[in-house]
Design goal:
heterodimer, A: alpha+beta, Butyryl-CoA Dehydrogenase, subunit A, domain 2, Butyryl-CoA Dehydrogenase, subunit A, domain 3, four-stranded mixed beta sheet, 52% helix, 15% strand, B: alpha/beta, nine-stranded mixed beta sheet, 7 helices
């Protein structure tokens, strides 16, 4: 067992860190305030291979691995959680399922564009009446000659209006429950597809989260991803990978909060000394850094397990559960160290606290992670 | 065309402190980076590669850990990398360094050599020009713009304080670059993976170079420069800012000057 990053991963970390500091940090407050998708950043992310870190070179990917991908999302999220989730949703929820389930033609047509970052990807599972209870899907897909006709609405879709292509889960046979679900690759330009209302959210405001509306949306038969009836399996599998991304995002948010808090407490003076000299400050930060390091180990372990090809569902769920709760807890406690200044938008810590909460909710709530973990333990 | 880029690994002097007793840099715990001017030389070479398909070779002299700087250069898009490293090269001043690098470059073969103007740790700006002298080739220093002109020439703008010279230089030649020349690109993810999985750092030790450089010209023994003592410059005192009328300003200045005199 080796807890050290390889020289290759260290250099990748250096790249992600430098890019985040120079290209992402300067926009973080502005895209949060304006709820603006950072198209200019995504263009640069694409140029340097951040949009396809773990995919093979033959599909225009960076040919690194899931550990590198996790480090990428972590470093971006340290300074801007919205940018972190843009990369995570694109990579884990759209490019990865095409890589893992797609035909050669689908990979050549879509994965090459996604891994190079020429196209942005998104994923639609959640509906107004089907959140955690994914079997309640109302979106229907009916085969009509050479096309499937899709009807329904998806909500809370990260990257929605910025994306060019979507993985959409829809019911092809309602009598079969989750076994009646199928996955489709849907292009934004397909007839009958449109972007609905944009969410006005508490955090990750730069992520462009909207509804997707399909009204007699025509999807060519060859855009079925996997076989009919495999939609639930495709969705659960991509969410396993997605949880590594969200764990990494949460980890990044938490470490980013500690980093700004440490800088602050070394400057701020009260009662004639820097507040870093109070034992309360020291113990708080020591506690928090211990949690964040534990989150990092869980996250990297899940990524390395995915890379080695073993089952990692439980480990990804543990990483996501622990890292997201650490993110919420650590950002709240770091804000406390800032006192009144922390509550002001002059400092980034209030944004980090708002951004952290979503990591306990999306891609499976903390409760869902506990269902996955306990199922892995065969408790029931 | 084959372009050699000289790359030096240096401590990030933004983060470095000076030992007040010895006057030397405290290098412990300070991150190592590629010398900023050298990054601009790399960028200039990579731009020429994109335009003309040249092959780019990064060369660095230093201890084994300088390999990281060469991986960085490969990850930006260089085709090959050579590490000039041997215990006997240690302690070299600019003379011995340039002798050793010139030997390595001669062995590798080249059409053009690009080097950063100067390194942020030594600030001598001597190694590039000395390499050109040892190889007996023309050089242009302080390049603020480099454009290829035909198959074997470059038009270089050489910067001065208040003007620039426009110089045409034919290959083989050496050009040293300023940080105002360009904005260096980042490494890329694919570039880093390829730098480790597909490319190798080729080692040139003294045994590999002994036909190109004399033993008396390398390392500490080949270095005519000997540092007696280094001491940090006294920092300037904080100025005082007055917001006053012109007449009052004159009075204050005259008073201050006469006190010093």
């Amino acid at each position: 067992m080796d807890f050290n990053l390889s020289r290759k991963h260290l250099l990748l970390q250096e790249l992600f860190r430098e890019f985040a500091k120079k290209e992402v940090l300067p926009l973080a407050a502005e895209i949060d305030k304006a709820a603006r998708f950072p198209y200019e950043t995504v263009e640069k992310l694409a140029r340097y291979g951040f949009m396809g870190v773990a995919f093979p070179k033959e599909y225009n990917g960076g040919a690194a691995d899931n550990l590198a991908y996790a480090i990428c999302v972590e470093e971006l999220s340290k300074v801007c959680a919205a940018t972190g989730v843009i990369v995570s949703a694109h990579s884990s929820l759209c490019a990865a399922p095409i890589y893992e389930n797609g035909t050669q033609t689908q990979k050549e047509k879509y994965l090459t564009k996604l891994a190079s970052g020429q196209w942005i990807g998104a994923f639609g599972l959640t509906e107004p009446q089907a959140g955690t209870d994914a079997a309640m899907q109302q979106t229907k897909a009916v085969l009509d000659g050479d096309n499937y006709i899709l009807n329904g609405t998806k909500i809370f879709i990260t990257n929605a209006d910025a994306a060019h292509v979507y993985i959409i889960i829809a019911m092809t046979d309602a009598s079969l429950g989750t076994r009646g679900l199928s996955a489709f690759i849907v292009e934004k330009d397909f007839a009958g597809f449109s972007i609905g209302k944009k969410e006005d959210m508490m955090g990750i405001r730069g992520s462009n989260t909207c509804e997707l509306v399909m009204e007699n949306c025509i999807v060519p038969k060859e855009n079925l991803l996997g076989k009919e009836g495999q939609g639930f399996r495709v969705a659960m599998s991509l969410l396993d990978g997605g949880r590594i991304g969200i764990a990494a995002q949460a980890l990044g948010i938490a470490q980013g909060a500690i980093d700004v808090a440490v800088a602050y407490v070394k400057e701020r003076k009260q009662f004639g000394q820097r507040i870093s000299q109070f034992q309360n400050t020291q113990f708080e930060l020591a506690d928090m850094q211990t949690d964040v390091d534990a989150a990092r180990l869980l996250t990297y372990r899940a990524a390395v397990m995915k890379d080695s090809g073993v089952r990692y569902s439980s480990q990804a769920a543990m990483a996501k559960l622990f890292a997201s709760e650490a993110a919420s807890d650590v950002t709240r406690r770091c804000l406390q160290l800032f006192g009144g200044y922390g509550y002001s938008k002059e400092y980034p810590i209030e944004r980090m606290m708002r951004d952290a909460k979503i990591t306990e909710i999306y891609e499976g709530t903390s409760e869902v992670q506990k269902m996955v973990i306990s199922a892995g333990m065969k408790v029931n | 065309m084959k372009i050699i880029v000289c790359v030096k690994q240096v401590p990030d002097t933004n983060e470095v402190k000076i030992d007040p007793n010895t006057g030397t840099l405290i290098r412990e715990g300070v991150p190592s980076i590629i010398n900023p001017d050298d990054l601009c030389a790399l960028e200039a070479a990579l731009v020429l590669k994109e335009q003309y398909g040249h092959s780019i070779v990064a060369v660095s002299m230093g201890p084994p850990q300088a390999e990281v700087a060469l991986r960085h250069a490969l990850a930006m898009g260089c085709d090959e990398a050579f590490l000039v490293s041997d215990r006997v090269f240690g302690g070299a001043d600019t003379w011995a360094t340039s002798k050793t690098l010139a030997a390595a470059i001669k062995k590798i073969g080249y059409d053009v050599i690009l080097a950063g103007r100067q390194a942020i740790d030594g600030d001598t700006a001597q190694v590039g020009p000395q390499i050109a002298e040892h190889l007996g080739i023309p050089q242009v220093t302080y390049a603020q713009s480099i454009k290829q002109d035909g198959n074997n020439a470059f038009i270089v703008q050489r910067q001065f304080e208040d003007r620039y010279q426009k110089i045409k230089i034919t290959t083989p030649c050496l050009i040293t670059t300023l940080s105002t020349l360009n904005k260096p690109r980042y490494m890329s993810v694919g570039g880093i993976v390829s730098a480790f999985d597909e490319k190798e750092i080729q080692l040139l030790d003294f045994a590999a170079l002994k036909d190109y450089v004399d033993e008396s010209d390398i390392g500490l023994k080949g270095s005519p420069t000997q540092v007696r003592k280094a001491s940090p410059k006294q920092g300037k005192r904080q100025g005082i800012l007055y917001e006053v009328s012109e007449d009052e300003a004159v009075e204050i200045i005259v008073k201050a000057v006469s006190v010093r005199a």
